[in-house]
Design a protein that fits this description.
The protein has 10 helices and 10 strands. By secondary structure, the chain is an alpha/beta fold. The chain has one domain: Rossmann fold (3-Layer(aba) Sandwich). The strands form 2 sheets. It has a 6-stranded mixed beta sheet, with helices on both faces. The relative contact order is 0.19. The structure holds adenosine-5'-triphosphate and magnesium ion. The site of magnesium ion (MG) has 4 residues, from helix 1.
């Protein structure tokens, strides 16, 4: 299988604090990968490093056969790496549809171009409120909207930082099926999660990070059966 993202020896620092140590991570085409770990383990720092948002970092990040470590964020995003951070922000005065149009980017080679109509099919709950101002949506609905807006940039890989956090059970289900649809569509998706339950629904493989170090790597099926690892590193 062709690898979409291949990360080696990623080291990141906030000021003098060494946060990530020799992190490695891989995602193939059409694969959902989970980066699991407890509070403060380094999940968000890993994502931020991949998209060039951590000032001091070193290592190798190969995205689509190209080295992107050290490139500026706008260039990385233009190459097709989509990123939905923890603090999702939408434009509260703009409607759902207008929020989507803000994310529009030109089409990219080899990646189908998203339109708002396609996204409304993907996220039926957003279609029902396309003319509603973003400020009048629930937190979970806003979360869906930030993911949909990121897709408007036509990425081939998407990083979702804790996509299930704070969602109602109904929205969690919709989120899971949206991510599985993204995979069917050919996208690679890397999610970060604190616990296994949501990740188990959608992920092919998993990594566990603790104190900035990757402690475990395996298929999701293997991890689900490994109580020792789960008890050591996850909130289960
Ligand atoms: N801007 C920052 N400056 C200094 N230290 C930071 C900064 N952001 C995060 N850290 C530290 O880096 C470590 C990793 O944090 P990170 O946010 O990556 O963890 P996380 O796995 O995403 O946790 P959570 O599940 O709580 O979101 C923590 O010790 C945290 O205190
Ligand atoms: Mg985080």
């Amino acid at each position: 299988m062709k690898s979409k993202l291949d990360v080696h020896s990623l080291n990141s620092y906030y000021g003098g604090a060494h946060i990530l140590t020799d992190v490695h991570l891989k995602a193939h085409e059409s694969e959902v990968v989970a980066l699991l770990g407890r509070n403060g383990a380094g999940k968000s720092t890993t994502f931020a490093s991949l998209v060039g948002l951590v000032e001091k970092c070193s290592g190798s990040v190969i995205f689509n056969d190209e080295e992107i470590c050290g490139k500026p964020t706008h260039e990385i995003v233009r190459l097709g790496l989509g990123y939905v951070p923890e603090d999702r922000r939408i434009f509260t005065d703009l409607t759902v549809e207008e929020n989507l149009l803000v994310g529009k980017q030109p089409a990219r080679d080899g990646v189908r171009e998203w339109t708002t109509e396609m996204l409304f099919e993907f996220f039926p709950n957003l279609a029902e409120m396309r003319n509603r101002p973003g400020g009048q949506m629930s937190g979970g609905e806003q979360q869906m909207l930030t993911i949909a807006r990121t897709l408007m940039g036509n990425p081939s890989l998407v990083l979702l930082d804790e996509p299930s956090e704070g969602l109602s059970p109904k929205i969690v289900e919709e989120m899971a099926s949206a991510i599985l649809e993204m995979k069917k569509y050919g996208l690679s998706v890397i999610i970060s999660e604190q616990n296994l339950h949501f990740a188990k629904l959608i992920s092919d493989r998993a990594y566990i990070i603790e104190k900035g170090v990757i402690r475990y790597e395996g298929t999701m099926t293997e991890l689900a059966q490994n109580d020792e690892v789960k008890n050591a590193y996850l909130a289960v």
